[in-house]
C-alpha cells in the first residue's frame, strides 16, 4: 500500500514542479514587459527617482512636479481610475515639496467668503442671531427654534475668530492614517489646532496626533450614547473635556431638533463647573451654505463630515491650512491596510458620509496648493 | 338750605347717641354676667392666674395642669369645639411646664416600631432594597420600578440612623407661627434638627428658626418649578443646598413615577460636585405604613405633610422630640393672624394636606407628654 502510493505520487509532483517553473518564468517576463511599456508611455524613470529622491526633495515649481500635479488633476472624478492608480500618483507627488499657491488660495478664500463667511456666521452669536430669531434647523427644515432670551444669553457676543487670524492651522482628522506618523510635534507647532469629535489625545497617541487643541467638535450622538444625554451624571463628560486644556468646543445644536437640548446641556454643565471654556453652536445656515458650496464642487453626501466643515472654516480663518489624519481609504498610499480611526476600527454608518469623495477633493486642493494634506510620516 | 339741613340733623343724632349708650350698658352687663358664670362653672380664677403665672411656671404633675390637659383631651375631634375655644384651652395649658411622659412615649414608640420601623425602613437602602427589587410606588401603586444596579448603587449601605440615637431632636415646620419666636438658639441646641422642603434659614430668619440642619426634605415640585428639573443648570440648586452645611437631604423619589428622575438628579448633581452630603430617598412602603398608622389615629388626608413624616420618623430616632413652626391655623393661639409660612404667605393647594388635623393631633400628643409642640416665643 505504502509503496504503491509513493510510486504513484512521485512522477506527478515532478511534472507539477516543472510546470510551475515555466509559469513563473512567463509571469516574470510579462511583468518586465508591462513595466517597460509603462516607463516608455509615461517617459519617466521610476527606478531612478525612487533611488535618488526622498519626500519633499523636489521643488514645487520644477517641471517634474508640475507634471506630477497634472497627473492628479487629470483624475477628474474618483471613479475614473482605480484607487491603486490614484494612490500611485499621490505617492509620486510626495517627492515634491508642497507650497501654497497664493492665487489659487486667495480665489478659493474669496469664494468661501461669498458663500459662507465663517468669520461672521460659523457659530450662532448674539450679533447674527438676535433673541426672537426663528432659527431654522439644518436638516429638520420644517422645524424652527424661536431663540428665547435664555438661549440667546448662551451665545457669544460675536464670532471669536476673524478672517485669516491664524497663520498656520492644523486640522486633525481621526483617520488611521495618522497612526505611527509621528506628526504630533508638527501639529502642536501650528498656531491653531482643530479636532473632530473629542478624539483621544493622551500619551498613547500624542506622539502621532499632538495635544494642542483650540477648537474641538462634539457630535451630540457621543453625549447621547456614552454620557446618557447628560441627564444623569455630568462630571465624567466634564473630565473628558478637561483633556483639551483651554480648547473651545463646538456642537451642531441646530442640526436637528434632537441635537438641541443635549448640546445646550454641554453649556449648562460647563457653566455649573465654572469653566471658562468657550461653547459654540454651528450656525445651521453656515452649514447649509457650506454643504451647498461643496455640492457645486462635486462633493455630495447626505451629511458632510465635521472634518470637512472644520477644513472649510479653517480656510477662511487661517492663512495656511494643514490636514492630518484625513484619509478615508482602507489602505494608506503604499497599499498597507489601516484602521478606520487612529484609536479604534469602528466603521461609520454606510452611505451617511462620503469620505473618499471628500479626501479626493482634498487631494485636488493639495495639488492646487490651496491646502496641505499630510498622508505620510512627519520627518 | 343750610339752616334747614342742620335743624333736621341735630335732634336725630341726639336720639341715636342716647340709644347707643343704653345698648353699650346692656352689653357690658351681659359680658360681666357671662364671665362670672364661666368662672363659677369652671371653678378657676382666670384673672388671678393671668396675673400671677407665666408660661411653664406650673409643674406638669400639679392638679391644675392635669385639669388643663384634660380640657384638651376632652376635645376628641377638631370639629367638636370652635377653634377659638381650642386655642384658649391650648393657651391655658402653656402655664404648665411640659414634661415627657415616659410610659405614653414608650408605648407610642413601640406602636411605631411595629408599624413602620424607621431605623430600618425610613430610606431605601442597599440592605432593604436589593438590586432587582420591584419597588412599588407610594401613590402610583400600579407603577413598579425595577431597581437596576445603577439605582441600587445610589442607595446607602444601611440606614444612617438607629433607634433613639439622638437625645433631643427638633423638627422645624415652616408655619408663620415661628416668626418672631426667637426659637433659633433653642432649635440649634438640639442634637438633631429636621427641616421640611429646604426652607430659608439665612440671617433674616435664623434668630427664629435656627440654622443647624441635619436632615432636610426636598419636595421634587420645587426642583421642577424653580430649577427646571435640573435638566439645565444645576449649580443654582447646589448653592441652595450649600446653605444647609453638612445636612443630608431626603426626597420622596418613589412617591410617584414623576418624582423619580428629578429626585435622582439631586444625587447626580451632588456626585458631580464631589459633595459628601447624604442623599436619601424615602422608602415608599415606610410612607404607606405611616399613612396607614395615622389614618387609624384619625389623621386622614390625601397626602400627609412631609412635616408629619419627619415627626413620625423623629419619634423613633430620638429620645425627645420638639416641634417648632407647626401650626396650621390662620391665627396664633392668641388670635392674631399669622402668615402661612414664616418666609411667605403662599397658601397650599386646598384639600391636599390636612394640616389642622395634623396639628390637632400634635396638640394631643403634646398633652400626653409624647412630644413638645412649641407654639409660643422661646424665652
From TrEMBL, chains A, B:
GO MF annotation terms: alpha-N-acetylneuraminate alpha-2,8-sialyltransferase activity
Functional note: Involved in the synthesis of gangliosides GD1c, GT1a, GQ1b, GP1c and GT3 from GD1a, GT1b, GM1b and GD3 respectively.
Record InterPro entries: Glyco_trans_29, Glycosyltr_29_Sialyltrsf, GT29-like_sf, Sialyl_trans
Entry GO terms, CC: Golgi membrane
Membrane topology designation: Single-pass type II membrane protein
Record's catalysed reaction(s): a ganglioside GQ1c (d18:1(4E)) + CMP-N-acetyl-beta-neuraminate = a ganglioside GP1c (d18:1(4E)) + CMP + H(+)
Lineage, opening ranks: Eukaryota, Metazoa, Chordata, Craniata, Vertebrata
Family classification: Belongs to the glycosyltransferase 29 family.
Pathway the protein contributes to: Protein modification; protein glycosylation
Subcellular location(s) of the protein: Golgi apparatus membrane
Major subcellular site: Golgi
Keywords: Disulfide bond, Glycoprotein, Glycosyltransferase, Golgi apparatus, Lipid metabolism, Membrane, Signal-anchor, Transferase, Transmembrane, Transmembrane helix
Disulfide pairings: 169-318
Protein name: Alpha-2,8-sialyltransferase 8E
Short name of any one Pfam family annotated for the protein: Glyco_transf_29
Residues spanning the membrane: 21-42
Amino acid at each position: 500500500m505504502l509503496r504503491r502510493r509513493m510510486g504513484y505520487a512521485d512522477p506527478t509532483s515532478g511534472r507539477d514542479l516543472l510546470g510551475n517553473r515555466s509559469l513563473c518564468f512567463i509571469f516574470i517576463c510579462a511583468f518586465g514587459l508591462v513595466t517597460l511599456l509603462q516607463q516608455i508611455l509615461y517617459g519617466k524613470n521610476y527606478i531612478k527617482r525612487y533611488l535618488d529622491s526622498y519626500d519633499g526633495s523636489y521643488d514645487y515649481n520644477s517641471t517634474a512636479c508640475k507634471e506630477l500635479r497634472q497627473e492628479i488633476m487629470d483624475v477628474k472624478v474618483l471613479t475614473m481610475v482605480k484607487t491603486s492608480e490614484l494612490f500611485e500618483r499621490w505617492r509620486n507627488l510626495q517627492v515634491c515639496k508642497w507650497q501654497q499657491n497664493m492665487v489659487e488660495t486667495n480665489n478659493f478664500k474669496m469664494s468661501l467668503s461669498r458663500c459662507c463667511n465663517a468669520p461672521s456666521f460659523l457659530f450662532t452669536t448674539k450679533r447674527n442671531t438676535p433673541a426672537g430669531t426663528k432659527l431654522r434647523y439644518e436638516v429638520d427644515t420644517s422645524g424652527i427654534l424661536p431663540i428665547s432670551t435664555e438661549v440667546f444669553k448662551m451665545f457669544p457676543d460675536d464670532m471669536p475668530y476673524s478672517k485669516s487670524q491664524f497663520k498656520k492651522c492644523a486640522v486633525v482628522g481621526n483617520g488611521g492614517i495618522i497612526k505611527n506618523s509621528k506628526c504630533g510635534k508638527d501639529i502642536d507647532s501650528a498656531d491653531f489646532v482643530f479636532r473632530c469629535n473629542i478624539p483621544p489625545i493622551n500619551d498613547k497617541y500624542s506622539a502621532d496626533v499632538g495635544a494642542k487643541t483650540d477648537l474641538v467638535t462634539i457630535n451630540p450622538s457621543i453625549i447621547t450614547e456614552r454620557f446618557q444625554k447628560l441627564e444623569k451624571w455630568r462630571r465624567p463628560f466634564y473630565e473628558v473635556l478637561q483633556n483639551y486644556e483651554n480648547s473651545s468646543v463646538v456642537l451642531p445644536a441646530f442640526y436637528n431638533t434632537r441635537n438641541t437640548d443635549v448640546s445646550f446641556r454641554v453649556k449648562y454643565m460647563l457653566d455649573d463647573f465654572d469653566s471658562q471654556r468657550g461653547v459654540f453652536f454651528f450656525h445651521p445656515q453656515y452649514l447649509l451654505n457650506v454643504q451647498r458650496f461643496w455640492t457645486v464642487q462635486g462633493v455630495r453626501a447626505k451629511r458632510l463630515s465635521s472634518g470637512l466643515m472644520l477644513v472649510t472654516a479653517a480656510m477662511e480663518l487661517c492663512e495656511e491650512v494643514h490636514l492630518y489624519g484625513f484619509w478615508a481609504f482602507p489602505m494608506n498610499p503604499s497599499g498597507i491596510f489601516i484602521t478606520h480611526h487612529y484609536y479604534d476600527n469602528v466603521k461609520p454608518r454606510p452611505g451617511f458620509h462620503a469620505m473618499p469623495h471628500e479626501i479626493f477633493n482634498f487631494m485636488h486642493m493639495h495639488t492646487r496648493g490651496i491646502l496641505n494634506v499630510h498622508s505620510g510620516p512627519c520627518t
